[in-house]
Amino acid sequence: MSETVTALVVTYNRFELLLLTLGALQAQTRPVDRIVLLDNGSSDGTFARLLASGLDLRRVDYVRLDSNRGPARGFWQGMSYAVADGADWVWVMDDDVLPDPDCLESLLRALDRLPPPAALGYLQSRVVGEDGRSQNTPEVAWRTEDGNYPDWERLLKHGIVATSKAALTSTLIPRTTLERFPPPSPDFFMWGEDSDFTLRVTADLPAFLIGASRAVHLRRIARPVNPLTETDPVRLRYMRYKCRNNVYIRRRYYGFWPMMDCLWGAGSQFVRALVRGNLPAARALALGTLSAFRFRPRLTPAADPALMAEHRVLLRQGQRVGRPDGARPDGTATLSDVPDYAPTADAAALSP
Fold first, then answer.
1. What is the pLDDT at residue 205?
2. Fewer Cβ atoms within 10 A, N terminus or C terminus of the chain?
3. Model's pTM, two decimal places?
4. Residue 235: what are its φ and ψ, rounded to 5°?
5. Where is the Glycosyltransferase 2-like domain (predicted)?
6. What contacts 153, CB < 8 A, 6 or more positions away?
């Protein structure tokens, strides 16, 4: 296969995890052609520390937003940069995803049994946690337009399953998909932007889970996110986005009764939060649920000039572009140049 593959990693204040992800990308049996590192406004000296890490940066583009706009904007910005840069495929993940060495090779090998890229939505790796248990499980494609049985299992003997919704954790997306379907809407801010994007795509194009391709997700919280069990006060405040986005997605893609089921679940959680005296959780549930009916996320095409103008490129194929904060005038950097790491509470909260 001669097409170029750009790996996109969205990062925010998790330098140690980021190094692990970059190391896993550089250990692929089918090397990536470019790594786009989208820094979503980190405050931990990520760039200077990366320069001082000794990691091979010759294929790395470092793109930075000056403040954290949320994961949804980070994915939009990074995908748009990759498309504008000419990538044929964009391999998307967070900074806590460790693809197995043959992860990308297995995704690309599966193309021999699948539609051509122009008729393909995306490919998804199998994702597990550190303990080997499933995480970010995609939704099997049950929909059918011809009145027959869904054929999600047609390729099962080859370890390939048709899906309709997936998380952006080791997701390989052809350029043609990103040209036809706008990347995740920044209006989601966090939680749900990946569901909305993949559901938009699979409404028209098939997408597949590739069982031979595996990635490990080093999530800070292995269980599903729940406002009733969240202990971080800032992260709990952001739960309103999760509630809003969940209701919107049910209303937009699944219909009346699934939306009502989602509302019933949110209402039950709201009552339990009040009974337990967990007023921050109750507030997040109420505000998020009510705002869902006014929520109309805007879909901005890839590489929109206005949004693209808001990032800075600090490295292009490992070469310095300009002089970012924290670097020496001669273009070198050591750990002594790194500002003291003093992340705000928002740092953890904005990392899903």
1. 96
2. N
3. 0.88
4. -65, -35
5. 7-138
6. 161
Environment class of 59 (CB within 10 Å of its CB; exposed 0-12, middle 13-18, buried 19+): middle
Listing DSSP states for 34-98 in one string gives EEEEEE-S-SS-HHHHHHTS----TTEEEEEESS---HHHHHHHHHHHHHHTT-SEEEEEETTEE
Placement of tokens 């998020």 in the chain: 288
CB 334 within 8 A of CB 45: no
Q: How far apart are CA 329 and CA 217, in angstroms?
A: 38
User: For residue 146, how many C-alpha atoms fall within 13 Å in the half-sphere facing its CB?
Assistant: 4
Kindly report, residue by residue over 231-258, the tens digit of the pLDDT: 778 788 888 999 999 999 999 999 999 9
What domains can you pick out in the chain, each with its CATH number? 5-223+299-349 (3.90.550.10), 233-291 (no CATH)
Tokens describing residue 152:
């999600």
Q: Give the Cα separation of 58 and 297 in Å (integer).
A: 37
What CA–CA distance (Å, rounded) separates 229 from 273? 10
pLDDT of residue 327 exceeding 60, the answer is no
Phi-psi map region of 26: left, alpha, beta (phi>0 left; psi -120 to 50 alpha): alpha
CB under 8 Å to 143, separation ≥6 — which residues?
150, 164
CB 119 within 8 A of CB 106: no
Burial of residue 333 (number of CB atoms within 10 Å: 0-12, 13-18, 19+): buried
Q: pLDDT tens for residues 112-125?
A: 999 999 999 999 99
Give Cα separations from 287 to 195, 234, 237, 239, 242 (angstroms): 21, 15, 10, 9, 11
Count the Cβ atoms, other than its own, within 10 Å of residue 275.
Answer: 9
Residue 347 has pLDDT above 50, yes or no: no
Q: Which helix (H) or strand (E) holds 348?
A: helix 345-349
